[in-house]
UniProtKB/TrEMBL annotation:
Its EC number is 6.3.5.-. The gene is gatB. This is Aspartyl/glutamyl-tRNA(Asn/Gln) amidotransferase subunit B. It comes from Geoalkalibacter subterraneus. GO terms for molecular function: asparaginyl-tRNA synthase (glutamine-hydrolyzing) activity; ATP binding; glutaminyl-tRNA synthase (glutamine-hydrolyzing) activity; transferase activity. Heterotrimer of A, B and C subunits. Keywords: ATP-binding, Ligase, Nucleotide-binding, Protein biosynthesis, Transferase. GO terms for biological process: glutaminyl-tRNAGln biosynthesis via transamidation; translation. Coiled coil: none annotated. Pfam families: GatB_N (PF02934), GatB_Yqey (PF02637). It comes from the Bacteria.
Amino acid sequence: MISKYETVIGLEVHVQLTTDTKIFCGCSTRFGEAPNSQTCPVCLGLPGALPVLNRKVVDFAILTGLATNCSIAPRSIFARKNYFYPDLPKGYQISQYELPICEHGRLDIETEEGGPKSIGITRIHMEEDAGKSMHGETPETVNSSLVDLNRACTPLLEIVSEPDMRSADEAIAYLKKLHQIVVYLGVCDGSMEQGSFRCDANVSVRPHGQARFGTRAEIKNINSFRFIKQAIEYEVERQVELIEDGGHVVQETRLFDPDTGMTRSMRGKEEAHDYRYFPDPDLVPLVIKEDWIERVRTRMPELPEAKMERFMRDYGIPAYDAEVLTADRPLAEYYDACVKLHGGGKICANWVMGEVTRGLNEQGIAIADCPVTPEMLAGMLKRIDDNTISGKIAKKVFDAMWSTGKDADTIIEEQGLKQVTDTGAIEAMVDEILAANPDQVEEFRGGKEKVLGFFVGQVMKASKGKANPGMVNELLRKKLQD
């Protein structure tokens, strides 16, 4: 039944900016402070208080626009979006409407079929957040509603896509790409749990081949990729079943309930005219000259796609490794620094994706807090290269670096881990092991090649893991074949 219909999805993403202060006043944007402790006459909407635009918000908007292939408007205007809600003390939200700061962008994603697809970005505009209403969240307030205005006037970017996505998987691919970009740029911390990156999904269905869009429902404020996927898939199924049963979809705003996996009606969907937009008389038009854009452009970091291509081209690592290593900007920078110090792209990738990531996950820490620096890791890898230690001993050295903060050379010296490469010393151990195991010698000479592994293990045990494995193998084969 669903196969008869095409899904149409457009997304509105709210990105909370990482400025120290709010968009129109000097109040702090720190998360988790005591309720109503980060407010002033401006964000409380007191009479006579005038907003003053935070220049850093504009810089972040330009940076995001450039990263998403948008045109930056030379002139944009702030507007008042009028509606009443208890956590909006002014009775309106300062946003942008007819003339936003960024328009006509795009993001390229990989679809589930494996092919590339370009998703249009209609606009990016700046706006302030509302406060937060809390309804009976504690036993003491079970019959009360409280308002915390710390979040009021917090700077947001709203990024509005074209209705170009045709499945929940495409929507998630777009959101993950956008999330990665804004975190790479440093304009957003990306925390979906704290509401720094949240999404409204506009979902409709239409029979295949129909040009006209179906009636859409907007699902509000979904704050995890998993829930967004569930909400879209449920909504598509709900709309198709409604149409097939002879009903029709109503344009409305709906909420997603993660406990049931269902959406439910919240209110009728407002149109733009319902908000009675008009230019804010307290804020002059924003004029952005080309030199301002170019100054911001110079602060553009290398974005994930470009970094991934460079890692594959310059460091010779496969696409999978490059994708893993560039998923997180600090991890990519750690790996990049390690390769520049050591020179081996693949061995650095193996250790960063292996031992480094394992340690981070076990301790629940970020790469910024990793006790093994790129300099320490590169120094250890050089000791593998020059045969000072073997790959097996290197894992012991790495664990010691992690727990003590000492470098590889210090640990190798203190713990006596230097690899035995003296041919005479290894040959003596080999002779001793062969003499002690005549039956196994005969088995090898009788064609049982696997017995070689037994001898290697015995020599390594005798050397306490310090014998050079390559030399051990070479000497064993030579003596066993004599």
